[in-house]
Amino acid sequence: MTMTMKTSAVNLIVVGLALSALVIAWLAWRRAAARRAVRSHPLPAYLRDKLRAQYPQLGDRDVAEVERGLRQFFLASAMARGRFVAMPSKVVDAMWHEFILHTRAYENFCRKAFGRMLHHTPAEALAADPKRGDKNFQGLRRAWVWSCRDEGIDPRKPDRLPTLFALDAALAIAGGYRYVADCALLGADRGGTHCAAGFGCGSSCGSSCGGDGGGDGGGGCGGGGD
User: Fold this and answer.
1) Number of H helices, E strands in the chain
2) Any idea of the CA torsion for 113, 166, 153, 82, to the nearest 10 degrees?
């Protein structure tokens, strides 16, 4: 190999490394911007009124917690980088649906938080014996991991439930989705309650958390299900 060829090869490597660094920096900036938008962008005040109309038993503090849960879901969706994220809460799903009905406000929020529209699908319960490779199970995994990280919880060994997974039970939502952090608390008669720690994943949690890659939207799949 001539000196000129060696120099060209080195230059190509340098350019490649520089481009890779730029891409990594841009992705980090985009994720930081998405987190800021999700956490700070004001949600329309009428969402709280609409939710109270559906659930008149909820007080101001309860509704504020539901809004917090919705932001947590949006955060998971932003961090999932276009992969499907499932909705684990019926009451949060109700507020999300009301937001979507006000198209202009929702489009503006999505553009700032995700750079695209986050589409909604109808809620359904998690199957009694879900397959870990199912799209909706993987979607719940992503919701679980990022919700836990938002509150400083270890998704593999949780000592409590993050807000998004705790709300339906805490607010006694009829037909809501129930989870426990400790699988040992589930007896033979588990009813519709699920062990959320089962959504915790191994070394892949930091990136795709399961990586089925499907879909560009969130899912209102309540407990997950397929």
Assistant:
1) 7, 4
2) -30
The SS3 of residue 216 is: coil
Which domain does 171 fall in, by range? Answer: 41-219
Q: Spell out the residues 6+ positions from residue 66 whose beta carbon is closer than 8 angstroms to its own.
A: 51, 58, 91, 92, 95, 167, 171
DSSP category for residue 35? H
Q: How many domains does the chain have?
A: 1
Distance CA 178, CA 196 (A): 9
- On whether residue 56 sits in a domain, the answer given is yes
- In this predicted model, what pLDDT tens digit does every residue of 95-107 receive, in sequence order? 999 999 999 999 9
Instruction: Write out pLDDT tens, residues 130-139.
Output: 566 678 888 9
Is residue 186 assigned to a domain? yes
pLDDT at 28 over 60: no
Distance separating alpha carbons of residues 55 and 74, to the nearest angstrom:
22
pTM: 0.75
User: In whole angstroms, what is the distance from residue 178 CA to residue 193 CA?
Assistant: 5
- 187 burial type by CB count under 10 A (0-12 exposed, 13-18 middle, 19+ buried): exposed
Whether the CB-CB separation of 205 and 146 falls below 8 Å is answered with: no
